[in-house]
C-alpha cells in the first residue's frame, strides 16, 4: 500500500524555511517496489557541488558526532578515512549495499538520508596542514553567557547525519563510527542525537516547531534569494582554495529552561520572540510570511516588536546584513536531577564566514535579548565543511591529496 499522506511531504515538501518556500534539494524518489512509501524511498544524491545536509530539508532524526584523530594518525590516515567515509556515505544514501548493511535498516529505503563531513581546527595541526587552515576556523569568541562543556565541544572531524527514519539514521552513524575504529585513525569525541517533525505529520507542509513551541525557521535565507550563495557558501576562487563551494557550520547545544519558559503567559512568550506562537506571524503582521515591520509602534508609541525581542536583535537589518542558514534539530536527553527536561536545540547554522554570520549576531544576543533568560549554551563547535565530492572523489580530497 502506498502511504500517500506521508508521501505528500516525504519528497522534501517540508521546507526548512518558510512555508511553501521550498528550499532547493536534490532529492530524487526511487521506486523501491510496492509498499515502500515516498518517505522511505526518497534518496538525496551524495555527489554534487555542495555537500548534502545543508539545503536539504531537515529530517525527522539527526545525529551529530565529532571525532578526534588518534595520536600518531596523520594526513595519510586521515585521507584514507575520508575516502572510506565518502564511499560508505554515498552507498548508504543510495539505499545501502551488503557492506553497509548491519541489518538494522534492512527493510527501509534511504529515507532522505544525508551525511555531511567537516574539519575542526585541531585537524590541521594533527595532519601537518596548519598552513591550509582557514582563518575562518579561528576559535569563536567566548561569550559571557556561555556555560560550555569542553568534552562535548570542538573536535577534529565532524559528521552530521539526518534521515526520516530512526533506524536508517542509526545505521549510518554506526557504519561510519565503525569505519573510524577500523581505520585506526579516529575515535568519537562526542555525539548528540536530535529530532524534528516527521514528514506527513501535519496536514500540509509547514515550518517546524522547536521545543518551546515556536514556529522556527521562518526567516531563513532561501536558495532563491539572489545573495543566498554568497552568504552561505565559500565562492570558487575564495580562500583557502580547497574550501570552494563549502560552508562553515557553527554547532551549539542550547538547553532550554522549559520550566521557566512554560510559566510565562502566551503574550509574554510572544513578546520574547516578536512573533505569534499560534502561526509564527510577526507581531506586526497577519501571517507567517508577512514582512517584519521593526519600525511599527503602538498607540503609546512603544515598538510593537520590543527592543529586546529575539527577531529584532537577530535580524540581518540590525546586524549589517549578517545572515546564516539555521538548520537545527531538537534534542531531549531525559530529565535532570531537579526534574527539568534536559532538552533544547542542537543549533546548527551555516554561513560563508562565521565572522559575518554567527559571531556578530551571538555577540548581540549575549548582551541579553529577551530569549537569553530561558536558554543555556552548553557546548560549541565550529567546522569547515568542504564542497561536495564529484563522482569518484572523496570529501576533502582537494585538501588531503
Ligand atoms: C529567528 C528561536 C537561538 C539567530 C528565530 C525565531 C525563533 C527563534 C522562534 C523566529 C522564526 C524564524 O525566523 O525562524 C530560537 C531559539 C533559540 C535560538 C529557541 C535557542 C534555543 C538563536 C541563535 C542565533 C539565532 C543562537 C544566532 C546566533 C536567529 C536569526 C533569526 C532567528 C538570524 C531570524 C531573524 C530574522 O531575520 O527575522 N529564532 N533561536 N537564534 N534566530 Fe533564533
TrEMBL record:
Keyword Signal: yes
Keyword field: Heme, Iron, Lyase, Metal-binding, Oxidoreductase, Peroxidase, Signal
Region (Disordered): 28-48
InterPro entries named in the record: Dimeric_a/b-barrel (IPR011008), Dyp_perox_C (IPR048328), Dyp_perox_N (IPR048327), Dyp_peroxidase (IPR006314), EfeB/EfeN (IPR006313), TAT_signal (IPR006311)
Keyword Oxidoreductase tagged: yes
Domain Dyp-type peroxidase C-terminal: 207-389
UniProt xrefs under SUPFAM superfamilies: Dimeric alpha+beta barrel
Major location category of this protein: other
UniProt remark on cofactor binding: Binds 1 heme b (iron(II)-protoporphyrin IX) group non-covalently per subunit.
GO molecular function: ferrochelatase activity; heme binding; metal ion binding; peroxidase activity
Broad enzyme group: oxidoreductase
GO biological process, one term: iron import into cell
Names of required cofactors: heme b
All residue ranges annotated as the Dyp-type peroxidase N-terminal domain in the record: 51-195
Reactions catalysed, as given in the entry: heme b + 2 H(+) = protoporphyrin IX + Fe(2+)
Compartment(s) where it occurs, according to its Swiss-Prot or TrEMBL record: Cell envelope
Listed PANTHER family: DEFERROCHELATASE, DEFERROCHELATASE/PEROXIDASE
Purpose of the protein: Involved in the recovery of exogenous heme iron. Extracts iron from heme while preserving the protoporphyrin ring intact.
Protein family membership: Belongs to the DyP-type peroxidase family.
Record protein name field: Deferrochelatase
Organism of this sequence: Streptomyces hoynatensis
